[in-house]
């Protein structure tokens, strides 16, 4: 946000901004963020460790549930 401010790029006027870590700092700076479902992520990781035989050899994307915490950095669509 500081970088964009120095470049005079208005958030969310000219650009929408979202972070992928819903931290106290994101709250303090009113940064919209994505909050991963940590419980679901832990289950996926544990399942991978415990059931390595059932994991496909071919790499594939893993989808992790979560939610967007909307704050002041995302404009209207």
How would you summarize the topology of this molecule?
Layout lengths: L1 H5 L11 E2 L4 H5 L3 E5 L1 H13 L15 E4 L8
Describe the fold and architecture.
This protein has 77 residues and is α+β, with helices and mostly antiparallel strands. 30% of the residues lie in helices and 14% in strands. The protein has a three-stranded mixed beta sheet with strand order 1-2-3. It is elongated, with a radius of gyration of 17 Å. The mean pLDDT is 87.
Structure summarized in a few sentences:
With 77 residues, this protein is of the alpha+beta class. Helices cover 30% and strands 14% of the residues. The chain has a three-stranded mixed sheet.
Kindly report the spatial arrangement of strands forming the biggest sheet: 1-2-3
Task: State the helicity in percent bands.
Answer: 25-40%
* Principal-axis shape: elongated
Q: List low-pLDDT spans.
A: none
End-to-end CA span: 20 Å
State which percent range the strand residues make up: 5-15%
Mean model confidence by pLDDT: 87
Largest sheet, described in full?
Answer: 3 strands, mixed
What sequence of helices (H) and strands (E) makes up the elements?
HEHEHE
Class per helix and strand makeup: alpha+beta
Number of helices: 3
Number of strands: 3
Using the CA coordinates, give the radius of gyration. Answer: 17 Å
